[in-house]
Amino acid sequence: ESLDEGLSKTKESVFKKLSRAVVGKSKVDDEVLDNLEEVLITSDVGVDTTLKIIERIEERVSRDKYMGVSELNTILKDEISDLLEENNTTDVSDFDLPKKDGPYVIMVVGVNGVGKTTTIGKLAYNFKQAGKSVVLGAADTFRAAAIEQLEVWAERVDVSIVKQKMGSDPASVAYDTLASAKASNADVVIIDTAGRLHNKVGLMNELSKIKKVMQKIVPDAPDEVLLVLDGSTGQNAFEQAKQFTKATEVTALALTKLDGTAKGGVVIGISDQFKIPVKYIGIGEKMEHLQIFRRREFVDSLFS
Ligand code: GDP
């Protein structure tokens, strides 16, 4: 599925709102800027990031007093794309991974329901397509369903999985997973974790214990801590990002369910507020529906 299709709800909404924002106008004036501010805020870009973007556009308008509204799209795309670049969103070209000694370890965090398991399954599929051998670790031992769902995905995409029974120590599962991956010379390990936010100290301790135990086998593990957020939940996603970044060092974001929302602007706001690169976006339930986030392509699609 194409990015344009996946983002169609947000695209249509942004297009409509932008058209309304400039109707009857030829120049970018204060009223257009006010309207633009509203377009961005109602697309879940977030207030702070919106103000930052508006400020930059204001600056350009002050230099070019006769800036036409026809140029607004291009300027928006440039400014947002620059903003994302400043947040370290460097585009990776495919599902290739840096060469290293031992498996590349991705620890996946996020609350239940955001699409964590699905994202892990999709990642496994893509890495496998890219010729990598993948091992999944079912370290969300809190819910039986989490282990079962991960097993379903492992079977579906035909990768191995390491699990123990429900209620067992997540760190022990992570340890077993890395040991197995190392023994089989696997390229990439993806560890699922339980995202129970009601107890921040508990979450922090659990994640740091998992890390410590993994480092007994792969000293620099994890290579990536991927926070999965539901892109259709706006402020909730911001709140979860705040909690998880306090609990552990998050190195990358995956924003899911962007196909189901008209508010895909959340991708821009979250990346900007937390200075964490968005690496993947989910635009559907199937394994083909995970894309590498490419900022220019994303922005072009949104404001086309
Ligand atoms: P978890 O509890 O975080 O592991 O969440 P799941 O992976 O079980 O996903 C919860 C629901 O969201 C499932 O019905 C998934 O099919 C659905 N889902 C996950 N990612 C996406 C996405 O990108 N788009 C859509 N439309 N649905 C998604």
From TrEMBL:
InterPro entries: AAA+_ATPase (IPR003593), P-loop_NTPase (IPR027417), Signal_recog_particl_SRP54_hlx (IPR013822), SR_rcpt_FtsY (IPR004390), SRP/SRP_N (IPR036225), SRP54_GTPase_dom (IPR000897), SRP54_N_sf (IPR042101). It is a peripheral membrane protein. The keyword Glycoprotein does not apply. It holds the Pfam family SRP54_N. Its main location: membrane. Coiled coil: none annotated. GO terms for molecular function: GTP binding; GTPase activity; signal recognition particle binding. PROSITE patterns: SRP54. One of its GO terms (biological process) is SRP-dependent cotranslational protein targeting to membrane. It is an enzyme of class 3 (hydrolase). Keywords: Cell cycle, Cell division, Cell membrane, Cytoplasm, GTP-binding, Hydrolase, Membrane, Nucleotide-binding, Receptor. It catalyses: GTP + H2O = GDP + phosphate + H(+). Residues 277-290 form the SRP54-type proteins GTP-binding domain. The keyword Metal-binding does not apply. It is found in: Cell membrane; Cytoplasm. SMART domains: AAA, SRP54, SRP54_N. GO terms for cellular component: cytoplasm; plasma membrane. Part of the signal recognition particle protein translocation system, which is composed of SRP and FtsY. Involved in targeting and insertion of nascent membrane proteins into the cytoplasmic membrane. Acts as a receptor for the complex formed by the signal recognition particle (SRP) and the ribosome-nascent chain (RNC). Belongs to the GTP-binding SRP family. FtsY subfamily. This is Signal recognition particle receptor FtsY. It comes from Draconibacterium sediminis. The gene is ftsY.
